[in-house]
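Thread amino acids onto this structure.
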């Protein structure tokens, strides 16, 4: 009996607290209509209380948000000139001291509670949303799928090799985006090709592994800061593994088509032969274009007795094959798992690469 009374009392307190919270949220969470001013554009109005990132999205301002607004990628940095409220602990790890001082914030963490004025990079104002139809798809390894997305409505996309798009993942609760590098070449403007690794229970990758030819997919883009030095005498060194192949495939195919004299290296690391991607394609490219050199290396060659190529970690191949200080005029593009990139970066630095010429996309 005493237990029953205690349970009833506790339940009543719980219900009471919930009602109080709801009332407080109604009273204090009602921010009315707020104005959002972006760069020198006319301000737009939104109902207060929502995230800045979502308000921008509704206005078709597509800033990068690779983690889909979870506050875990730091891609949605935006300069808040006024009205952003105090910096949140969730933002601090992603912002340098300098950025914190100059008002940089994570747009997915800033709630609009009053009029707000922000500055976004001019290039983001050119990012568009596209609808596409899924074209042919094929499994390249047990967990990596090549997917072609053909733009609908006669749309075309302009991008630089090395850039990425953000795919809208259907989700009932919220707007979710995930970033995927473009593997196709910029001269193909009416479709993008992606390489997607399936992450067990991953929202975005499961979605992109389940779409079928003819399905409609929405994405925004292009995004990404890497600018390829197009001059014929500067060397391009690509190092990566897994789905890190996607942007490297775009870069090298673009160079082969537009600037075949440019010296290039592709270093691709995998554990075993079943994880190698496009080896035959790149071998054929290197045979035709002697300026393009390739090196595929296995870190577990004992499992592949027929393997005749390089062995060991891929940064060891870079150390072996790449000339020291050959030219000051060279760029490196690294893409793959964080540990692989860390080791590759160190090797490249030892080879005389300047930090500002090493670009890395970790995933
Ligand atoms: C600029 C950029 C470009 C990218 N390009 C590509 C690309 O070309 N191809 C591609 O496949 N991916 C790419 N990614 C990664 C991609 O954006 C997603 O993060 C990835 O597909 C996982 O998303 P998800 O929704 O499937 O998993 P989520 O739902 O985000 O995660 C589900 C669970 O898996 C864990 N998890 C997330 N990622 C990984 C991982 N890599 N390994 C192990 N566990 C993980 C999470 O911690 C979580 O517990 C890129 C990322 C960035 C930032
Ligand atoms: S931190 Fe990833 S979208 Fe804001």
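Threaded sequence (363 positions):
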């Amino acid at each position: 009996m005493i237990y029953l009374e205690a349970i009833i009392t506790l339940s009543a307190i719980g219900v009471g607290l919930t009602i109080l919270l709801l009332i407080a949220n109604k009273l204090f969470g009602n921010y009315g209509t707020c104005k959002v001013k972006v760069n020198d554009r006319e301000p737009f109005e939104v109902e207060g209380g929502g995230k800045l990132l979502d308000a921008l999205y509704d206005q078709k301002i597509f800033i990068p948000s690779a983690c889909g607004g979870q506050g875990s990628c730091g891609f949605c940095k935006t300069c808040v000139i006024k009205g952003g409220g105090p910096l949140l602990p969730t933002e601090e790890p992603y912002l340098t001291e300098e950025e914190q001082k100059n008002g940089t914030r994570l747009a997915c963490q800033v709630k609009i509670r009053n009029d707000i004025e922000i500055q976004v990079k001019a290039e983001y104002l050119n990012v568009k949303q596209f609808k596409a139809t899924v074209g042919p798809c094929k499994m390249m390894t047990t967990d990596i799928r090549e997917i072609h997305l053909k733009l609908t409505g006669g749309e075309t996309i302009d991008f630089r090799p090395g850039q990425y798009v953000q795919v809208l993942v259907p989700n009932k609760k919220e707007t979710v985006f995930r970033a995927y590098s473009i593997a196709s070449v910029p001269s193909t403007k009416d479709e993008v090709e992606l390489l997607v690794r399936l992450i067990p229970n991953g929202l975005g990758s499961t979605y992109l592994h389940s779409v079928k030819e003819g399905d409609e997919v929405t994405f925004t883009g292009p995004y990404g800061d890497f600018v390829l030095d197009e001059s014929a005498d500067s060397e391009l060194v690509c190092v990566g593994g897994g789905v890190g192949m996607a942007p490297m495939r775009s870069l090298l195919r673009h160079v082969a088509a537009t600037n075949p004299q440019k010296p290039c290296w592709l270093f691709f690391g995998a554990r075993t032969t079943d994880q190698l991607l496009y080896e035959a394609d790149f071998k054929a490219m290197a045979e035709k274009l002697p300026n393009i050199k390739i090196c595929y290396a296995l870190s577990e060659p004992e499992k592949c007795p027929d393997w005749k190529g390089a062995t060991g970690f891929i940064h060891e191949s870079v150390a072996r094959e790449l000339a020291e200080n050959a030219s000051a005029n060279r760029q490196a593009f690294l893409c793959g798992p964080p540990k692989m990139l860390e080791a590759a970066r160190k090797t490249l630095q030892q080879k005389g690469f300047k930090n500002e010429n090493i670009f890395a996309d970790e995933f």
